[in-house]
């Protein structure tokens, strides 16, 4: 499996920090692309959510959006834990590893 996502001009790969910084400087939001990049790293949570949805779809009168809230929250938390630091480190003022002194 390749960890490359289309990044407009190229692909996001091991050089993603400079690509993210460039996007931010151009006023573009890199979050959607980083979500695509990070989601495969959360496969266990993604599979857990898919199993939950399939189980509830097999039941009558079941709404998977309401009943699979916790597996979905776990998936989103995992993806956000991957995405947020990548954006945070690319922000201007974070050259020393933190924004506020």
From TrEMBL:
Judging by the UniProt lineage, the source's domain of life is: Eukaryota
Q: Where in the cell is it found?
A: Mitochondrion inner membrane
User: Which cellular component appears as one GO term in the record?
Assistant: respiratory chain complex III
Keywords on record: Electron transport, Membrane, Mitochondrion, Mitochondrion inner membrane, Respiratory chain, Transport
* Main subcellular location of this protein, as a coarse class: mitochondrion
Residue span, Ubiquinol-cytochrome C reductase hinge domain: 29-92
Record protein name field: Ubiquinol-cytochrome C reductase hinge domain-containing protein
- This chain's source organism reads Paramecium tetraurelia
């Amino acid at each position: 499996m390749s960890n490359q996502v289309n990044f407009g001009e190229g692909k996001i790969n091991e050089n993603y920090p400079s690509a993210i910084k460039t996007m931010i400087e151009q006023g573009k939001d890199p979050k959607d692309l980083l979500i695509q990049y990070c989601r495969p790293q959360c496969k266990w949570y993604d599979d857990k959510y898919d199993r939950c949805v399939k189980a509830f779809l097999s039941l009558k009168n079941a709404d998977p959006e309401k009943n699979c809230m916790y597996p979905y929250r776990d998936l989103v938390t995992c993806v956000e834990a991957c995405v947020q630091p990548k954006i945070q480190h690319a922000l201007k003022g974070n050259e020393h590893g933190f924004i506020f002194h």
